[in-house]
Amino acid sequence: MKRILVVAIVLALAVLAVPSVMAWDKDGPKVIDRDSVAYGRTYSEWSAAWQQWALSIPASNHPLFDTGDCSVGQSGPVWFLGGKFCNINNPDCGYSGVVRSCRVPAGKALYIPILNGEFSVLESNNPLEQIDDLRLLAAQAMDTTTNEFDIDGKQIRNLLQDFRVQSPAFVFTIPDDNLFNAVGEGPYPGGAYFPGLDDGVYVMLAPLRAGPHKVHFHGYMPAYNFTLDITYNLTVGN
Hints:
Layout: E1 4-6, E2 21-23, E3 30-32, E4 37-38, E5 41-42, H1 43-56, E6 78-80, E7 86-87, E8 95-104, E9 109-120, H2 131-142, E10 146-151, E11 154-156, H3 159-162, E12 164-166, E13 170-174, H4 179-182, E14 191-205, E15 211-221, E16 226-236
Parallel strand pairs: 6-9, 8-16
Antiparallel strand pairs: 1-7, 1-9, 2-3, 3-14, 4-5, 9-14, 10-11, 10-15, 12-14, 13-14, 15-16
């Protein structure tokens, strides 16, 4: 079975709830608790929404391929930041030392997976594979991962224990110029598919103060010998 590893960028939806936050200090960045309902969705539901967003973008203009700006497809109160797409069956799969610059409008929360995996029937060699099978495969890939995340030099600890989520099953739509084909899977035609499933370690940051910020995350997935190291230099403000 082929799998794609993905590591993060942005989508937006309506504000329906005020999330609880964990603050490092009076003026520092705030992390929204995993068990909160943030901007109308749980972490788990945001993970499905992130996949739907990321999978829908043409590879030729995609922030996770560095062929598009980080603002591509962004709207609403939450943006996703992330790393690179990769076919984890490829022995050369892995990205280290990636540095990006990104301008984020004021007032946007950021939803950021350190490591996450997309599993779907589209990629399966077994057309009868069920949602529970996908959940098991996703869990096996993520259970032994190591994850690191810091914002402006402040490290968030216990990521795998406190910030890991698995999405509900979701429908996703891909264009003809889709990421699966871009990383050497498929070929798969554009269209709508079900089910998809995401398992990953995510952090949601409350809107940052105007000015420069640095986000850095590092992950290792031993099941596929996959390493990722990403730095974002952010400029927040209109």
